[in-house]
Structures are given as structure tokens and as C-alpha cells.
Amino acid sequence: MYSIKRTSLKNLSERDQKHIWHPLTQHKLHPKMLGIVKAKGAVLYDEAGKSYLDGISSWYTSAYGHCNDHIIEKVYGQMQQLDQIVFSGFTHEPAVRLSEELIKILPENQEKIFFSDNGSTATEIGIKMALQYHFNKGSKRHVLLAFENGFHGDTFGAMSVSGLSVYNGPFEEFFIDVERIPIPTPENIGETLSWLKKRLAKQDIAGFIYEPLVQGAAAMQMYASAELSKILALLQANDVITVADEVMTGFGKTGTFFASDQPTVKPDVMCMSKALTAGMLPMAITSCCQKIFDAFYSDDIGKGLFHAHTYSANPLACAAALAGLELLQSKEMKENIDRIIKSHTRFDSAIKNHSKVAKTRQCGIIFALDLAVEMARYGNLRDKLFDYFMKNGVFLRPLGNTIYISAPYITTDEQLRKIYDTIEGALEII
Length: 430
Ligand SMILES: *Cc1c(COP(=O)(O)O)cnc(C)c1O
Prior knowledge:
The protein is of the alpha/beta class. The chain folds into 2 domains: 12-67 and 331-426, Aspartate Aminotransferase, domain 1 (Alpha-Beta Complex); 70-328, Type I PLP-dependent aspartate aminotransferase-like (Major domain) (Aspartate Aminotransferase, domain 2), CATH 3.40.640. Helix content is 36%, strand content 17%. The longest helix is centred in the last third of the chain and has 21 residues, at 331-351. Pyridoxal-5'-phosphate (PLP) binds next to α5.
């Protein structure tokens, strides 16, 4: 016999505090979570019935809106056919079709699709591909190159290549060897390239991982594709495996299917998750060019990529991803993306000269503004801003003194107006 623990607490927020340990949370400072009971389109509803516009697509996942009917229908159909199967030794229609459909829209050098289940594992696999590529070829390369202030996830390899912060600080001494370069600007690119040329002579750099065009967690830092191409070309000429972390930027965010569509030099490896499954189910993909796959293709079993996750290529997640790709390529979604890009550009001209705004930037549907005040990433002013947004029914998550928008593509003009008005209102309270 067993007894069931009974609770006298009433709402989700109170019940939550009994047993749940939340991600990215110092519970002593932030004990209360908001209970969300429903989401539809660009709107979230809390347990008191209050609604919020999801200005960041729930961490860039729900790109086509929450609980999208087309995605629900496709996932439901798949649920009745095949739910889960081991992906070593077996295959299935949703995975095969997803590989076919994805290859059609990925940069032309991408040939192979490796499945996992979250953004960190996608980058972890990219890192392993880069390291084992050289191992398999018998060359001793153990150093990874990354951009300063990048973010690639919370597992050990991913943490190693991320910029140091509260996320990964306590684990620094356990990291893989990493060297960092600044994101390129027309001013610093010459210096970076000459440093790299000297550094590459040691022949110990295995791979380079980078967020193409936009560094999300670094508060939406943006940089130009022309300079990125110069770095990629130099590294590829030296057989350094280039790994584009498109976990945030993929699937339309930057105005093209992938941010990597914009630089002329294409990555060897690409990491995808977040909007891949339209926010419906967790899944990730690491794609690569033929050269990577060939370095693992051998009579020697030990040269294979021995990496698996229980839910690799889960059929339901594949069905969600396929439905998402259909939406992404629909005329309606292309028009929506275009509409949001233009709308942000108009908002930018209206806001950029405001006395409380230091700087603005935009890449595709991502818009960011830096406030002309200094504040800590998780400080009081940041909390005051967050509370103001929520009180006004808009979910935005300021990063330090940066306010950014990455709303679902189906966000209407009226809803965008409300987000902009709320940001303008927030400038009055700081
Ligand atoms: C979110 C994110 C990750 C990590 O993805 P998880 O699914 O949260 O593990 C990695 N890289 C980038 C660029 C991201 O935005």
C-alpha cells in the first residue's frame, strides 16, 4: 500500500513551490512562477484568466503560433500510426520524409541528417563531429574555436564553447579547450584574420562553433555575413570544421530559411532545434556535409558516431517538424514574415532617437533595443521592466539592458502595435 500526499494549496503557483526546481532560477530570490493554462496563436493565458502576447515565441520555438491547428492535426494523425521506435536499426516514414524535405531547404552542401532531442545535444553532436572527424583522420586536434559571448547550451561540450557567465562559471575547470574570437565587425576583421592565420599554424584547432548573424543569449548581438564568410573561408581552408548553431536563428527568424543562407561560405555542420518542431515537441537535428559523413564511414566500427538518445527521431516530433516546414514555406507565412520585418523597421525609425534608447538593431523578425541605462542581467531594473510588461499583458524577457522582440510570425499588426506601445510605455518608467 502507498499513501498519496495530499495538498491543501490551491493554485498552480503555490503547488509548484512544493516540489519543483525550475531552470535558470534562483528560488530564494524568485520563488513564484506564473501558472499558464492555455496558449493559442500569439496569446498565453494564465490561471487567473489574464492573457499575454508571447513576444518571444516561448524562447523562439512557437514560430507559427501556439497550438497551431495544422500541426496538431499532423501530430494527432501520426499518434495513431506509430508513436515511438528505436532509431538504431529501424527507420520510419516521418524521419525519412523530414530528411528529404529539410535537405531541400538547407544550404546546398548539407547532405546528412543526425537526430537528437534538444538544442544542447544538437551542438554537442556538432562538437563531437568536429573532434571525431580529426580523430578518425589520425590528426591530433583538441582545441575548439568560438565567438566571445556565444551561447550553445547547457551540457558540458555546449557549456565549454559558450561565453562565461552565471550559466557555466562553476564548471569552468572541467571544460574542453576553447579559444574565443570577437564577433566580426568591418573594423576588427583584419586583426582577427591575421591572429587566426598565425594561430592555425599550430594545427590543433578542430572546429569552430558560432551563432550565425545573431547571438541570441548575448542579448541579440548582430553582425554582418560578409565578415563571417571571411572567417569561415580561412578556417575551412585549414580543415577546421565549421559548425553553425542555428538553434535560435533557424526556420525564418533572420528573413531567410536559415541565417547560413546569407553568408556566401556555408558551414560544414548545422545545429537545429527550437522552431524545428514549431514548439510542439522537443527534437533537434545536426546536419552535415558529405565530407564529415565520409570521415566516419569505415570498415572500422570504432570510427562510427556512437551517439544516441532514446527519443532520437521520435515519429511524433518528426510529424510536427514536417507540418512546420509546410507552414514555413506557405505563401501566407512568407507574407507574415515580410509584414513583421517591415513593421519592425517602422517601429525602429520611431523609437531609435528616444532619449532612453542607446541603440537599436534588427535582423529579420528579430528586433532589439539597448536602453541608455546600465543594469545587471538579472538585476532589479530588469525585473521592474519584466513586471511592467507582464502587467500590461506582454511577455518579453529583457536580457540585461536589452529589450528584444521575436514574436510568432502570425502575430497580427494590432498585436505588434500593442507590443510596441508597451515597450514605449516601459521607457517612461525607467
Ligand atoms: C536555446 C539554444 C541552445 C540550447 O538549446 P536547448 O534546447 O535549450 O538545450 C543552443 N544554442 C542556441 C543558439 C540556443 O538559442
